[in-house]
Amino acid sequence: MRKxxxxxxxxxxxxxxxxEPVKGAVDAxxxxxxxxxxxxxxxxxxxxxxxxxxxxxxRLEIVSADEVIETWEPxxxxxxxxxxxxxxxxxxxxxxxxxxxxxSSGNTGALLVGGQAIVRKVKGVERxxxxxxxxxxxxxxxxxxxxxxxxxxxxxxxQFAMMGSIYMExxxxxxxxxxxxxxxxxxxxxxxxxVKETFLLLKExxxxxxxxxxxxxxxxxxxxxxxxxxxxxxxxxxKLYEGVGTVLINRVKSAMMVSLRSKLGALLLKPxxxxxxxxxxxxxYGGAPLLGxxxxxxxxxxxxKAVHFKNSILQCIQLxxxxxxxxxxxxxxxxx
Amino acid sequence: MRKxxxxxxxxxxxxxxxxEPVKGAVDAxxxxxxxxxxxxxxxxxxxxxxxxxxxxxxRLEIVSADEVIETWEPxxxxxxxxxxxxxxxxxxxxxxxxxxxxxSSGNTGALLVGGQAIVRKVKGVERxxxxxxxxxxxxxxxxxxxxxxxxxxxxxxxQFAMMGSIYMExxxxxxxxxxxxxxxxxxxxxxxxxVKETFLLLKExxxxxxxxxxxxxxxxxxxxxxxxxxxxxxxxxxKLYEGVGTVLINRVKSAMMVSLRSKLGALLLKPxxxxxxxxxxxxxYGGAPLLGxxxxxxxxxxxxKAVHFKNSILQCIQLxxxxxxxxxxxxxxxxx
Lengths: 336, 336
Prior knowledge:
Two copies of one chain form a homodimer. Chain A is built from eleven helices and eleven strands. Chain A is of the alpha/beta class. A six-stranded mixed beta sheet of chain A has the order 3-2-1-4-11-10, with helices on both faces. In chain A, strands 5-6-9-7-8 form a five-stranded mixed beta sheet, sandwiched between helices. At the A-B interface, helix 8 and helix 9 of A face helix 8 and helix 9 of B.
């Protein structure tokens, strides 16, 4: 029998805890037979939530953690003080090999700090980047780093490029992924010191398919598979994607409702439009994995709903089955 | 009689020179009686282009400049060497008071360097930022800086906030403009050193209506009038706006064409959709002015068409009529 992939789900983090993470876990269990879910958090609350669902009881366990790390808490402090928080308990299970991955939509800073401090980095990895998939016209691209490493150095970005390549090749089955450096111009000499130095380093890397600089306007066109960038810029890209998409889609939807004529038009367009308007829904693709760690850690959106938790949990099957951590480890140990 | 606003238009810069800048100038002249246009560039070529149009000949003059600064040329070098380029000649006319403003879609770097070196900064202004208007759900917001000042310091960003406020108040008639700092979180302690320090300085400024940090996802919602950011990030925001908007609109348009049913729906929706799909068309609002200079300098998109040139030229009337440079000068001299 195939071994179950064990995913710990944080039921205390994010805007819709515990309702949405619990529902997402139940949905994931029903969707896929190869996972076992640990719901971590306050036992009584989780019990209450679960009571309304029918689910495979042999593949769900509750793990007690009474403390909660709030969104506004300073990360390092919170991790050190709240040893019995859902976040620390969950990450510790991954570290000890009791689980394969941890999914949370709680305090991002705490998850990043905790991921590196508790689950620990693969040897040779300098920083662990946060790397969500973002939709493009043609497919998806991995945006790396989108918020983990403040004050990144060129050597960090080069490692991100490498880890991103391994992710796209291993998990997304993209052959020889095209790696691009986010910059404010296409030419080699454009940009600040960080990107200029990184450009020179990436050009020399033989095992990276570096295609050069990419301007932000070309990101949605899908001309690259891995988008290498510093955390602040990556975070702005991720959130602006979401913001522009949402506003534009809302505008299209309300334009459809202004008159009887437009409503009729909307009715006729409904079948084709439904999929179209989903194209820039970032949450379709699960959460953002924290790469370069010795186990799986996935950050879901702070306002994640059940479907996002479900997708993030299912994503962990891939991380485990394809042994992403192992492959990154292999690469960095060969290098050493 | 009212004095004409004198605008120099660079006919040699950008992807569609000389066709589009010349056509844009003619359109602007027809649209507004209060402007005089100087077309700067190679006289013979401009003559040829103009021959196909009927236009008010008393308000258009050709100014000879035989050299062209190419897009790939290193800015400082190009400005110093090509004294007879359309860019240097045009900026010099503004410096000498022979014209009120210069509009170009040529080499951005050269325009930024030339603007500061030839037209010169207002006394007290440390750096001149590039500040385009970007559309939001409700109206527009000024994105400042979107590419002029590499390695900006907190004091630069504070000046950008001030100049942006003056612009929105003077040109866009926004009372007490809401100024926000682009950051990766809403809380005061979020972000890198630059934004943290800038936050503290902005909080102390009594003549700025500082509303705190803004996350990129909220930019399109229109919750702020002035978006203060460092050049690299600003440039990414501007271009991603364009990229996401374009791809999404193309998707909507092609979805409308997939079947007979959808085509019929599209036909019914046409009247309302036309305006809706224009919402994120950045070029609707003219070009990006370089603020804090002693005269008007406006950068239009490298792939600007006639309509963008026309809008950028008309924008110069506002810059002159409202005496933006004078108001910025006034503010910075009071401070001294």
